[in-house]
């Protein structure tokens, strides 16, 4: 019996104390970069039996059990997520460096959270990710999944020329970028010493009074408002030469209120909201309780019924429909690889002024590999234009077993399983709190109503009847 025990110990000894292949920086494992925030591609990892590396630790925690990974940036901003963390400790730390094991330099990111957002990256450059437990204790057996994600495209109204209306009785909620550049030079921004991650709106006054607008977020935001302008065209044409704003705030608060007294019918005001915190967050804009003025949105050039972008073999079908159109000259179809830089791929003649439904159809015969973003630029006869909501289509060489569509979405989406049936669905917010839990399914496709969810990014956990668990991301706007 003693001999058998000794033999078992000898056989298992190498595995108990085997160091991971990426225990040192030189052995960093290359991980894929997802084209979105859905984490369709993840890399399993573990700090079990890892040892300290010779590279200095420029961040907090004790890197005595660090493991290394590398990725090549495809965008100027990416996210890092440590998912499914389990084991002897769940308190992990990660840091990011330029890809030079011999001279790491200052960390680009130090994060005690299991997620972080990197900005200012150079597409095509490689970066190192160092993962370790916070504690100085040894012997941790923690496992995790590493996901490198790509941020969604910014709102379409990030430039003054593309400003969108604020309508009385309607709440605007949008996902602000953490790497959206800065507002253009030339305007007098008043109290705003900096103007990072801008979004632009206009308000056309229909009834006079006091204009009060609430702006709410989770982290520091600021605003400036200009006017009055005689009309929207004048407001758009003079952008980059605005004088001092009539109201602004550069406070550290995440809740702001813009106020202008004595506004008159027909006047137009321009509102700039900046995401000073430079983090991805939802910002909500609506009328304050003290507001007595109202804005007019009835002059919108079109009433959009639908806009769809769907993959068909190696082409993308673009379909959209309108209920009404007013002085609509044409539509410009635009495409982008990253949501920042857009190219025109075609035009469709508009219906002028029409009170009947109109349908349009266009084919992109040469879409990008990976993910493509699409939007419509609707142009009036007088040259004014409106940028319509963004849609995305992905062509992947890897067959996925679970798909969420549409994504991003506002109030519903479908979960489809290619090779199995769905048994259970759990949706959690960024804090890990479960917000939706559905069970007892036995279908290949499940409809999810998410009207009750606030805008943001959620993790969807899908359990299938063949005892597999999948993790996907859904973006609610």
From TrEMBL:
Residues 406-476 form the Secretion system C-terminal sorting domain. InterPro entries: GBD_T9SS_assoc (IPR056600), Secre_tail (IPR026444). Residues 22-145 form the T9SS-like galactose binding domain. The keyword rRNA-binding does not apply. The keyword Signal applies. Coiled coil: none annotated. Transmembrane segments: none annotated. It comes from the Bacteria. Signal peptide: none annotated. Keywords: Signal. This is Uncharacterized protein. It comes from Brumimicrobium salinarum.
